[in-house]
Task: structure prediction
Amino acid sequence: MNRAVRAIVCCLVLLMGMPSHALAPSREHSKWLDLPIQRLIEMADKDFNDGNKKDTALLCYTIVAGRYETSMSLREKEVCKDAYMKLWSIYFYDFYDYPKCFDCLTHALEIADMADIEDANIYLGFGCMYQTISEECANKELGATALDYYKQALQAGLRTHDDRYTDMACTDVLSMARVQGGLSQIHGIWQNYLLLPENNETWILRRYNKMLYQAFDHVEHHQLEEALAMHDRQLQLIDTTQYSRLIYFTHIEKAKVYALKGDLAAAIASVKQAESIAVGLEMKDCKLEVFDLMARYYQQIGDHQSRNHYYNRYTMLKDTLTNYQQLASVSEMEFRNELKGMEQEMTRIKQHREVMSVVTLVSLGFLLVLLVLLYLVYRKNGELTRSNQSLYQKNVEMLRAEEEERRMRRQLQDKEQQPTPAAATPANADVKYKSSHLSDADKQQLLSRIQEVMECNPEIFTPDFTLERLSTLLGSRYKYVSQVINEHYGQNFNNFLNSYRIKEACKRMNDVEHYGHYTIEAISESVGFKSRSTFVSSFKRITGLTPSQYQRLAAKGSQ
Result:
C-alpha cells in the first residue's frame, strides 16, 4: 500500500473516531511507519520491559504486526507472530481489553498455522484468557475450554521440546483439571510429562508440578493432612522471589485444604500470607481473589466486621479495575489515532460539514463491508475445520482399509499362491514400454514381490533407499521394476516411495502414546525424508492436510 492510499485510510479511521475539532496526530509517530522492523522491535522491547509504561511498545508492536504478509520469510512471520503475542500481553495485563486480546491471539494462531509453526505460548494465552473470564463469570463451560487450551499448550511444548512453556502449561493443566472434575481426565498427558528429565533449568518447576499433582491427588482421596504436608514441601522448594506467583498460588491452595478440614482460622492465616505477596507486588488479579476469599471465610465464622472490610475492598478494587478499563480504552484510542495519522494534516475547509457527512457515510459502508467479510471469514474457518476433520477421518479409514487388504492378500497368497491381479495399464504405458520383454505373468509376479518389500522391509524408511536398491532386493533389473510401478500405480518410483513413507508417517502420528512428543522434523526424518519442504508438500498432496494439522487432529482424537 503506497503512502497516498495509507494516508486516505488513516484519515477515514481518524475521522470516524474524532470530533470535528480534533487536533492533527503526532508527526513523530507517523515517521515510525517507515522504520525497519528490527528498529521497531528494539524500541518496543525496551518500553515493554520497563513495566511502568507501554506506550511505545503498543505503537511499535502494532506497526510490526500490521506488516504481516503471506509472502514473508519464515523468520519475518515469526517476528509478526511474536508481535501479536506481545500485544496480547499488553492488552491483557495493562488494558484488560479481552476482545482485543482474543483478536491478537487469533491473528498469532493464523500466522502459526499458515507458516506451520508450533507455539505453545499461543495456546497458553487462550487458556489464560478463558480461565480469567470463566472465574469472573463463574462459567464452568468456559473453564473446560481453558483446560482444553492448556492441554494443547502442554502437548505443543512436549512436541517442540520447549521446557519453559511445557512446565508452565503443566501447572495450569493441573490447577484447571482439579477445578473441572479431577485429575483422571489428564492421566495420559500427565504420564507423558512424567517421562521428561529434570535438568538444571527445569528441576525446580518439574518437581513442583509433581508435588502439586500429589497434593491434588491427596485432596481427591480426602487425605487432607498429606495434602497440607505436600504444599509445605512445595513452599520450601520455591522459597525465592523468582517464583512469587507460585508461592502465592500455593498459599491459596493450602487455604482451600484448611477450609475443607473446617479449620477456617488456619485458612484465613494462609490467605493472609498470599495477601502480603499480592499487595507487595501489586498483583491486582490476585488481590481480587484474596479479598473475595477472606470475605467468604470471615462470613463463615461469623466475623461480620472483617467480612464487610474485605468485601468493601473487593468491591472497590473491582470498580477501580472497571474504571481503569475505560480509561485504558481512551488511552488506547489516543495511541491508535496517533499511529493512523501519518502525514495527513487536518485543515479547515469551507464545506467542512459536507465533507464530514461524506466521510461518515463512507466509513459506515466500510464498516458494513468489514462486518460482512468477518462473517464470511468466520464461516470459511468453520468449513475449513470440518473439512480438515473429514480429511483426517478419511485418511485413517484408508490406512485401516489398506492394512486389511494387505492382510487378506497375504492370506490368499499363502493359501493359493495366486499372483496379485494387475491394475489397468495407463494409456501411454504400451508405447513407453513397447520394447519390454516382460510377460503379464512376469509383471504380476514382480508386482507381488515389490509389494512385499514395500510393506515388510523397514529399509524403505532410510534416506538413501533408491530404485536401484529396490531392484537389488528383488533380484531384478531396475527398468523392469520401474515399468511395473509405472504401469500398475501410474506414478514414478519417487512418488511411489513417498506414498508409503507418508502413510507410515500418518500411522506414527496416530500412535500418540509413542510418537505424540515427536516434532514434524523428527517424524519426517524417521520415515526417510531428507527435506522438510519435500515432506510437507508430499504429505499435503497425499492426505490433503499439512503435517501439523494432521498431528493436532491425531492428538485431539486420542484424548
